[in-house]
Write the structure tokens for this entry.
Amino acid sequence: MRLTSFLVLATTALLAFADIVSAETTITRNTPAAIHSNSDNVNELSAPKRMLRTHDEDYEERAGPEKLTGLITSGATKMADSDMLNSHLLLKTNGVQFLKELKLGDDIATALQSSKMDTLATYVNLFNKKHPDSKISVIRTLTAHYGDDAVARALVAATENGNTVERVSQLRRDQLVDCQNSVDDVFNLLKLRDNDYAALSTRKLEVLEDYIRFVNTKTNGQESLAKAFTAGFGGERNVALILRAARTDTFARKKALELENSLIKLWLSSGYKPERVLKTLRLDKDITRALKNVNLWTLGKYITAFNTNHPNNNMSVIGTLTAHYGDDAVSKALRTAKREPTTQRMAASLQGDQLKAVASRRLETLDDYIKLVNSKTSGHTTLLQTLNRSYGESVLAEYLVLAKAYGRESARAKATELQEAQFTQWLDEGYDSISVLTNLFNVDETKLNTASLDAKTVASQFKQFYERANGVPTNVQPRRP
């Protein structure tokens, strides 16, 4: 008799819940009276009863009631849930109020893991069908309760949880469709600026990129990650600094390179000249500081891209710096930078480029002048005397050094001949490498280290000539008064 009571009670509970309506109607349940009026149900009650009686009575006493109790509890829970949904639908409870009723708490990360999220989704679906003019959504409900930024960050974090990946993926899709914010707003909501260059390797970046694609598809817009980072990090200079730093990070390097290329393309499409990029990167205030700034490499990369797009131009970093600061200021700053370990290689490279640029300009003048003189006179001595009078011995000596190093083949040959003639004259006049510096370049004998690089190069080459001519080293020490 006890077993029969359990069966009747279990069947009554299950059948009572079986007629809950679908999402399209208000949830209802059958009454016990309706269940008893169904003859099929009566037959179902008697069949299991006979089957159980063929088993061991002791087993029946032990197992049957426990299993049926579980069924009863499950059915009762579903009935309670349906009653709750019905009552809130009748009261037209909004999403936030229903979320609070579910006691999902104030931690969005924990809420996303809860099975109650399914109940919330069911309620939202039923609510929208019952009240089509006042539709609500799960994502808007979560955002209203927990806040935009908290929900965005929690969805990113929850993506890595395999148990909720389907739920979270749907919420992220809904978030894109529902969001009325700009790309800049989303950047700020995700607090990417707080991550510095690590923002390039965080999952939050995926959310931003998804939103950019969504906005561009929806509005046929021209939003980009480069634009978002420029606005979010307070300017192109800051973005360039972050990208350069990110190149040293294994996880961020690839994305940093992509973003740097995007930034350069953005500048090219905007018609930026190298001078404009120099100012954009704030390399235009102080040449000494500019040479220490990692953004100088970004300028160099842009100039390379600029020359590729404009093959008739031959821009360079040293040319851009010189045009802005002047030859003398750049030369002085490069000499200083060469003495510092962190900037030594870069300064040496730029100095070589500078010498080539200077030599090119000076050689054009010198070449034209040599042609003019050769048309009126002959012999290197006469030519040398004429050039000395025109340029001065020290300046001519510098020109000849540059011509030998960077000139065309014909100019190098001519410069070598003229330098030999000049050095022969100095040798005849009793000069040594020290007196060349003190007499011709006006360097204080007690401060020979203050001589310019060009002057030191001339003195060094004359010293080699002197040793070859005399067959002895010239370890000359400064003369003391």
About this structure: Residues 1-63, 67-77 have pLDDT under 50 and may be disordered.
